[in-house]
Amino acid sequence: MKKRVLTGDRPTGPLHLGHYVGTIINRVKLQKEYETFIIIADVQALTTNFEHPELLKNDVFQVAVDNLACGVDPNISSIFIQSMIPEIAELTVYYSMLVSVNLLSHNPTIKTEAKQYNFEKSMPYGFLGYPVSQAADITFCKANLVPVGEDQLPHIELTRKIVRKFNQLYGEVLVEPEPLLSHMPRLPGLDGGAKMSKSLGNCIYLGDSKEVVEKKIKRAVTDPKRIHPTDLGHPEVCTVFTYHKAFNQNDYLEIEHSCREGKIGCVACKEKLISVINQFLEPIRERRKYYEERKKEVMEILYEGTKKAKKIAEETLEEVRAAIKIDYFK
Ligand code: TRP
Ligand code: SF4
Question: Closest Cα partner for 134 from 39, 58, 228, 52?
């Protein structure tokens, strides 16, 4: 039997280059070797967007389109919608007994996000607990491998803790997953901020047009110490260089060298990057367009993926309920 991959996205808007280099690249690479499940975590999106449920439908569609456009193949991978699998919610409740509030509140990703969403004073219970729900996302299908960006590592660690505790208390039912990082586990924002993030408004989206990409890269932050093109540069502090490293594997070493020697100016360096990113995005834009115009086909893909995931969830939940003695009428 093939090993399983599970990973996915929170549908709070279209996906960006950070998603691509952090996780999507590995989904596409591994899908032939692993049985692959891609979750569109709409309930998790509600933990921050609960005031705007009307946005969900389109965001779910956009995230599906992004995955398909990047090369997730619906004939071999299953893309599914979290909320349509109530077994995940049930599993979340069982897991919530195995985790302390104290542990959850020390999760560094939760802390960072709580700041972004102004949840520090009053933290929704569902938001604090979404990593528990994420553990259910990962384990209902007994996933072995979870391709993620660096920010997700605390959640995978929590998942592993829950699995160990469950298995120890109730018997070996669950599988302990491993995280998988890419060559660029965290992509900084255009503003030089730690991370490309929709809520910080510092992203290049997979669907951005040529002109938008150009405009965004032109105003991206570089080495602040460089004023003239001949000044010796420090690529290690430059966001534009990090993007070269992520997307321009052929030339980034030469760019690094030229920057340090003051042999390339930031304007020229950005022009190169604009061309690299636009070349990378062009086929994705085309496939995006294809799927955006075929809403019915995309919804069919989600329906089939959800059906397949649901069947597996039902099987796992039978085992889970038996293990925790919730099987009265058997
Ligand atoms: N938390 C992830 C993100 O914000 C999305 C996600 C939900 C996820 N469930 C998952 C990722 C399960 C990996 C596995 O991007
Ligand atoms: Fe960054 Fe390129 Fe300018 Fe060097 S030349 S500081 S890598 S933009």
Answer: 39
At 37-47, the pLDDT tens digits run 999 999 999 99
Please state the rounded mean pLDDT for residues 210-216: 98
Distance 323 CA to ligand 2 centre (A): 57
Q: Is ligand 2 within 6 A of the CB of residue 14? A: no
Q: Is the pTM of this model over 0.85?
A: yes
Average pLDDT, the chain: 97
Place of tokens 């456009």: 69
Nearest to 220 by CA among 248, 254, 196, 198: 196
The domain segmentation of the chain, as residue ranges, is 4-187+295-323, 207-288
- Residue nearest (by alpha carbon) to ligand 2 atom 3: 266
> Would you say the CB of residue 256 lies under 6 angstroms from ligand 2?
no
Is 90 exceeded by the pLDDT of residue 85?
A: yes
For 283, residues 6+ apart whose C-beta sits below 8 A from its C-beta are none
Pocket test for ligand 1, best of 6, 15, 137, 157 (most atoms within 8 A of CB): 137
* 4-187+295-323 placed in CATH 3.40.720.10: no
Q: Which CATH number applies to 207-288: 1.10.1650.10, 1.10.10.10, 1.10.240.10, 3.40.50.620?
A: 1.10.240.10
pLDDT tens by residue, 145-169 = 999 999 999 999 999 999 999 999 9
- State the DSSP code for 225: T
By alpha-carbon position, which residue is closest to atom 6 of ligand 2?
223
